[in-house]
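Posting for a labmate who doesn't have an account.
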Amino acid sequence: MFDLTGMTALVTGAGYGLGRGLVHGLVAHGATVIGLARSADALADTFSSLDPPNRFIVGDLTDDSLYAALDELSEHIDVLVNNAGGDPHTKPWGQQTTEEWRDTYEINVIAAERLCRLLTPKMVKRGFGRVINVSSIYGSIGQDPRNTGPRGGAGAYTAAKHGLIGLTHYLACQLGSTGVTVNTLSPGMITWQESPGEETLAIWDHLADQTPVKRTSLPEDYITATVFLSARGSGFVHGHNLVVDGGWSAW
């Protein structure tokens, strides 16, 4: 039921962290993976141990020309993992500019919608497809100000990730009878940064203490959930937000 042999997955944000972990996890379960990110060096690291036909594409999801190139892919994309996103303008709410809010929404929501609009019609024609929109626990709840540094804040990010879950719900209603499922994966606190500073390490320790399992997560913690949502056997899981957060939202 978890064999992805014969499927091709497109994973965005594949250069680092969660995206890198998901690329390796999907390949390990039989899928062919195309990774997409802006950094050629990071993608090269991700794919350094993977053989063809696994490959990567360097591109910026805010660039219109990228979508034209993706429309010409020779591969049939069976699984779309909209993992690209993040919080590029972390600062206290009120200090984030309108342009920074738009930028955050562009990479977290609009890019995912554009890829869905591009690729799901082709999935519908084949009668099968899986879309996984990677949101965050902050797509369902707000951010406790005590859980970030004095110069941090995730106002735009929280709003955008809520919007991504809304996109999942909307598309699930549109595609329900087509054989294409659309679901959200909402990770908890991921700590993978190389060479973190003392302030970052202190926040990580605090976040671990706030998590019932008493640790933060690594990218590998999300492979099983992603493989499950990609698998043929998950066809009745649709419009769902799968929270994987170590119990963060349980209390």
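Reply:
Got it, the structure tokens are right above this. The two ends are 33 Å apart (CA to CA).
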